[in-house]
């Protein structure tokens, strides 16, 4: 049987107070399903960073989590400005966040590297002026 | 497991106030009486604070009975020594206790806290940056909270036993005595420490009673504990553990390098902090001290005195952070003996998933979302659950009906009423027939 369970979270732009909500909700869901706690922890980080990115850089977007028998796929879709240089964005410490965001202590350039570190597969499609789709896969059994 | 709290069903009116304050949503009111889901209870005592009918109590032993024995040996939580007005020296306090026929192990308690702080400092120094921060195991309520809600963090616990346990072990080693020891505890969590300890098969103490019962009894028994006494020369470092941040200061005093610690008190702050730690956002922190109660253990529900007054007293204590050679020698010796070590690692205690089979769990989760979607989402508590989500979960777990929700019930009654009305408007066939 290949059941797939899908949950979707809407992330608003500039909503610092709500950031972390999707990650908390997903954690609850994964617990109810009995997903291994290591995956739950990694998923929390991936979704949290994705929420941050979508909120800070793209003015909002949608995060979708799909759970199947052997893996969890997290997809973050936004219609923001897109990423000009992915390789650069993947470097730790690189950030295009505005000064205001940095003053708040966010946008330290750890988002994408952190997502990469915590997922088994990462795929980013981006087009300038159109938006970004990030797809992170977390496998239940790390091979 | 809940062992520090008991419910007196005859006193419970089923008002459901307690279920709303429980930080882990461990309480329900079913058939008009409160019940606690043992796997979710962390013994923090918030429900005890809220209950106006005294239906929820600390699950303590009978102090009167214990105190009336020929000899009663007590180990007291540091918060105990700041409950009375004239306090300034545990040693003097001890002699007052003797007047009441009680013997306490104060000097060993003070030594045990030094040994504990030293052991924690060494554990921090042994770890590389990836292994840090370590988390304090002092508040048993926080231990349970992490075991249940933050299972990924259990590996961060510093495997150092409660200094109260170590105090009794030290005393036994030194004196060779085997008497039963009673803990005077500030909260249900520390009662649970005696009843079902973590990381060791059995507690070194046998009984546990609340601070408020003991102090009240001493005062009523005419023991002068409210008279001012001369300031004391002994080491009072350990008393600060009952105030948020005291443990961190003590540990820092033993560290060879400056350490970065975070101390928070109150379950809300604790949960926020653990969440950030879980997300890997607390880089560069060495040690984390969390207390379930506001201000620290002086805020425990089993204390007698106002936590603000005890805070004031603690603020005015003269504390010496440098050890004498003699003290250092004793601490070192006991550190080497490893008497402070927890014998087993602390394990996660995760909640059961909706089903062991993932596919089946998904089906039930969908069912749960469906039920939840149809509830009013106002978390009023009238169904005896802390939230509409909790009711939805209870229903799929087979522990309730959607119509436990009073709004759902009203809808159902309305539907039924409509059906009945419709039925009654239909005339029986016999009358319809033309004669
Ligand atoms: S903070 Fe202290 S008094 Fe409060 S639950 Fe924890 S150990 Fe008990
Ligand atoms: S609205 Fe209904 S389901 Fe929600 S808490 Fe109140 S009674 Fe329970």
UniProtKB/TrEMBL annotation, chain A:
Gene3D superfamilies tied to this protein: Histidine kinase-like ATPase, C-terminal domain
Q: Name one Pfam family in it.
A: HATPase_c
The molecular function terms in GO held by this entry are:
protein serine/threonine kinase activity
Q: Give start and end of each Histidine kinase/HSP90-like ATPase domain.
A: 42-141
Source species, domain of life: Bacteria
Query: Keywords assigned by UniProt?
Result: Kinase, Serine/threonine-protein kinase, Transferase
The answer to whether UniProt assigns keyword Kinase to this entry is: yes
Protein name, UniProt field: Anti-sigma regulatory factor, serine/threonine protein kinase
Task: Give the source species.
Answer: Dethiosulfovibrio peptidovorans DSM 11002
């Amino acid at each position: 049987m290949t059941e797939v369970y899908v949950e979707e979270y809407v992330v608003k732009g500039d909503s610092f107070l709500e950031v972390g909500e999707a990650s908390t909700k997903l954690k609850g869901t994964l617990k109810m399903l009995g997903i291994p706690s290591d995956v739950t922890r990694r998923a929390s980080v991936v979704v949290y960073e994705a929420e941050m990115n979508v909120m800070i850089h793209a003015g909002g977007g949608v995060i979708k989590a799909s759970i199947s028998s052997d893996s969890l796929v997290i997809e973050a879709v936004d219609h923001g400005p897109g990423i000009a240089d992915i390789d650069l964005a993947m470097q730790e410490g690189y950030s295009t966040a505005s000064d205001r965001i940095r003053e708040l202590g966010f946008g330290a350039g750890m988002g994408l590297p952190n997502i990469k570190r915590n997922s088994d597969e990462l795929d980013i499609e981006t087009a300038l002026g159109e938006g970004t789709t990030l797809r992170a896969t977390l496998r239940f059994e790390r091979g | 497991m809940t062992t520090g709290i008991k419910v007196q069903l005859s006193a419970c009116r089923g008002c459901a106030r307690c279920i709303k304050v429980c930080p882990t949503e461990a309480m329900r009111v079913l058939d008009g009486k409160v019940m606690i889901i043992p796997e979710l209870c962390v013994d923090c005592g918030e429900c005890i604070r809220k209950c106006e009918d005294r239906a929820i109590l600390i699950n303590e032993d009978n102090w009167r009975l214990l105190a009336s024995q020929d000899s009663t040996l007590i180990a007291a939580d540091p918060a105990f020594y700041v409950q009375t007005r004239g306090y300034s020296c545990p040693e003097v306090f001890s002699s007052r206790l003797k007047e009441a026929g009680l013997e306490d192990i104060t000097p060993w308690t003070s030594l045990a806290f030094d040994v504990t702080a030293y052991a924690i400092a060494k554990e921090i120094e042994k770890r590389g940056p990836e292994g840090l921060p370590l988390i304090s195991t002092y508040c048993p309520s926080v231990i349970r909270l992490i075991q249940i809600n933050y299972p990924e963090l259990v590996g961060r616990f510093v495997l150092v036993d409660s200094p109260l346990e170590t105090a009794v072990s030290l005393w036994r080693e030194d004196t060779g005595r085997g008497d039963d020891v009673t803990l005077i505890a500030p909260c249900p969590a520390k009662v649970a420490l005696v009843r079902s300890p973590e990381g060791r098969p059995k507690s070194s103490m046998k009984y546990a009673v609340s601070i408020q019962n003991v102090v009240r009894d001493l005062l009523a028994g005419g023991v002068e504990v409210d008279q001012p006494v001369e300031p004391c020369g002994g080491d009072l470092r350990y008393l600060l553990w009952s105030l948020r941040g005291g443990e961190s200061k003590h540990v820092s005093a033993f560290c060879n390098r400056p350490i970065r610690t975070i101390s928070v008190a109150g379950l809300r702050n604790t949960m926020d902090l653990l969440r950030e730690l879980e997300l890997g956002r607390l880089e560069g922190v060495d040690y984390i001290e969390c207390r379930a109660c506001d201000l620290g253990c002086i805020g425990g529900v089993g204390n007698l005195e106002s936590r603000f007054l005890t805070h004031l007293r603690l603020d005015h204590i003269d504390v010496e952070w440098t050890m004498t050679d003699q003290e250092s020698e004793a601490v070192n010796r006991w550190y080497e003996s490893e008497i402070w070590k927890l014998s087993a690692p602390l394990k996660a205690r995760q909640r059961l998933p909706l089903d062991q089979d993932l596919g089946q769990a998904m089906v039930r989760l969908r069912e749960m979302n469906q039920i939840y979607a149809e509830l009013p989402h106002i978390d009023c508590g009238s169904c005896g659950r802390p939230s509409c989500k909790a009711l939805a979960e209870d229903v799929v777990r087979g522990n309730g009906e959607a119509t436990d929700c009073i709004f759902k019930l009203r809808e159902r009654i309305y539907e039924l009423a409509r059906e009945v009305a419709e039925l009654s408007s239909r005339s029986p066939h016999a009358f319809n027939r033309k004669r």
